[in-house]
């Protein structure tokens, strides 16, 4: 039976590794970057990119209040080397939780 991940627990201010494709944060648009979007309130933008490559990002997470967040990546990057005209965003489908729930729970933990 396949296990469904309902949420992941993250640590405010910690490092987060994101693996995928076409992830490089690149472009001139103000919307470019990695964001933690709370259910209510303003998104928190990551200000430190530790590793910024097409297949992997490592970011220093901003200080986040307890709650549930959506991870949003917005970029103009393409493998051709030219930026696309309009920024593209991807919202990670699994909610990320800070300071909520029991830290001893079974299941994946992103830190």
Describe this structure in words.
The structure is a single chain. It is built from no helices and nine strands. The protein has strands spanning 8-10, 15-19, 33-38, 44-45, 48-52, 56-60, 67-75, 88-91, 96-98. The strands form two sheets. Strands 1, 3, 4, 7, 8 and 9 form a six-stranded mixed β-sheet that branches.
Describe this protein with a few key phrases:
mainly beta; six-stranded mixed beta sheet; three-stranded antiparallel beta sheet; about 110 residues; disordered C terminus
Major sheet attributes:
6 strands, mixed
Tally the helices: 0
The helix-and-strand class reads mainly beta
**Rough outline:** globular
Q: Ends: how far apart?
A: 26 Å
Mean of pLDDT: 87
Give me the Rg, rounded: 15 Å
Say how many strands there are.
9
Instruction: Please estimate the helix content.
Output: under 10%
Helix-strand string? EEEEEEEEE
Bin the strand percentage: 35-45%
Q: Which residues sit in consecutive blocks of at least 5 with pLDDT less than 50?
A: 102-109
A few lines on this structure:
The protein is an all-beta fold.
Question: What layout of secondary structure does this protein have?
Answer:
Elements: E1 8-10, E2 15-19, E3 33-38, E4 44-45, E5 48-52, E6 56-60, E7 67-75, E8 88-91, E9 96-98
Parallel strand pairs: 1-9
Antiparallel strand pairs: 2-6, 3-4, 3-7, 5-6, 7-8, 7-9
């Amino acid at each position: 039976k396949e296990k469904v991940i309902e949420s992941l627990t993250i640590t405010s201010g910690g490092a987060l590794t994101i693996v995928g494709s076409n992830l490089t944060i690149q472009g001139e648009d103000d919307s470019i970057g990695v964001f933690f979007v709370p259910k209510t309130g303003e998104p928190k933008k990551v200000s430190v990119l530790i590793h910024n490559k097409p297949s992997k990002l490592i970011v220093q997470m901003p200080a986040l209040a307890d709650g549930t967040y959506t991870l949003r990546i917005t970029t103009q990057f393409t493998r051709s080397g030219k930026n696309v005209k309009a920024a593209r965003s991807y919202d990670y489908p699994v909610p990320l939780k800070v300071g909520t729930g029991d830290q001893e729970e079974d299941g994946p933990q992103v830190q």
